[in-house]
Amino acid sequence: MADEDAPHANGNVHEENGHVPEIELIIKASTIDGRRKGACLFCQEYFMDLYLLAELKTISLKVTTVDMQKPPPDFRSNFDANPPPILIDNGMAVLENEKIERHIMKNVPGGYNLFVQDKEVATLIENLYSKLKLMLLKKDDVSINSLLSHLRKINLHLEKKNTRFLTGDTMCCFDCELMPRLQHIRVAGKYFMDFQMPTDLRYLWRYMLHMYQLDAFTQSCPADQDIVNHYKQQQNVKMKKHEELETPTFTTSIPVELDLQQDE
């Protein structure tokens, strides 16, 4: 297992009681080099949640990657067959995504504030990822248009809301869920199908620009190559030798023809 550096994510002393709990998040490592961050959506989502809390110094965050193709013996003995993400709080391991989410909300200092209640937004971002997977499988106009229609609904919501994030001007759990999926759509869609989000989705692009400027996203974001390889594995496409030697790249820019400065 390898420790991931998480700059600015370690608050060591809480002003009120002189102590902050250390939370460890075990995430899947890259399937390319077995060390850097992998392309697991849930791992990134909880990484972002906890990073935001660490920035507020309510917790100290340690992120550890584990190579699931060659898991170390202590991982097998401690966690059996359970894959990451795994949250460790005061020696207690929390397994399974729903339980991790509930633990962050109810037991991690500051976590309750991240988990806002908004049925409209919850419904809005639901099934977005399944539409990406369907598009990559079918590669037809019907699946492409279904994904585009969903993205347009999110764009319309952001236009009406006219805030930096989905529910307001501060990030919440829904942003930590949506943005990793948008990144997968952008990177995998481009690689496998030359799919690109239309530039007329102005408010969606503005949203992504805001996210690209945040450490919570950039520090948790996997390399483009790892996102691509994630879907290659799903399609049983073998990685070529030269891909292991590539320098990791990260798509965190917006189309040059989009001038969003006037929207700020």
Automatic annotation (TrEMBL):
Any one GO molecular function term: chloride channel activity
Instruction: Give the family per the record.
Output: Belongs to the chloride channel CLIC family.
How the protein sits in the membrane? Answer: Single-pass membrane protein
Q: What is the protein's major site of localization? A: membrane
Q: Name one GO cellular component term.
A: apical plasma membrane
- What subcellular compartments does it reside in? Membrane
Q: Which domain of life is it from?
A: Eukaryota
CLIC N-terminal domain residues are 21-104
Q: Which CDD domains match?
A: GST_N_CLIC
Signal sequence, start to end: none
Which keywords has UniProt assigned to this entry? Membrane, Transmembrane, Transmembrane helix
- SUPFAM superfamilies registered for this protein in UniProt: GST C-terminal domain-like, Thioredoxin-like
Q: What is this protein called?
A: CLIC N-terminal domain-containing protein
